[in-house]
Amino acid sequence: MKYVIFIIGLIFLVFNTLAGLIISVYLPFNYLMADLSIIITFSMIYWLAGSEHSGATKIGLTVLFAITGFVRMFCMMITPSTWENNILILVAMGILLIELVCMAGVLFVDKK
Fold first, then answer.
1. Quick check: 20 pLDDT over 80?
2. If residue 16 lies in a helix (H) or strand (E), which one and from where to where?
3. How much is the average pLDDT of 79-98?
4. How far apart are CA 22 and CA 40, in angstroms?
5. Three-state SS for 26?
6. What is the C-alpha to C-alpha distance for residues 15 and 98, in angstroms, rounded to an integer?
7. Please, what is the average pLDDT of the chain?
8. Which 8-state DSSP code applies to residue 25?
């Protein structure tokens, strides 16, 4: 299962990078930020697949991470190509924070 997740993540990453190199309106800032989002999302899903959590926890978090990862990637694709006054980067950071809190919550609950 982990191998399949790795391959799917790699396919998304290669496709996004090639799209950024081919399409002239897809600026390097945007496709590199989207690539970073793809790497983070599939790293969390890969970690989750290798963990010893219950099946329901894995399924729930995998679906959550996939949906929030897609939203975060979409934000990075359409965000203005600057760090200043960029609300979409703050939205993506907020989504990432929510994901990290969910991961920490699962780790905390499983230790008890």
1. yes
2. helix 2-22
3. 90
4. 23
5. coil
6. 27
7. 88
8. T
Take residue 12 and report the two structure tokens written for it: 């998304």
Contact 35, 76 (CB under 8 A): no
Structure pTM? 0.86
Query: Would you state the pLDDT for residue 111?
Result: 67
What is the spatial distance between Cα 75 and Cα 95, in angstroms, rounded to a whole number? Answer: 10
For 81, the 3-state DSSP assignment is: coil
Q: Where are the domains of the chain?
A: 2-111
Cα 102–chain centre separation: 14
Q: CA angle at residue 87 from 103 to 10, to 5 degrees?
A: 50
* HSE-up of residue 51 (Cα within 13 Å, Cβ side): 20
Place of tokens 């290669």: 14
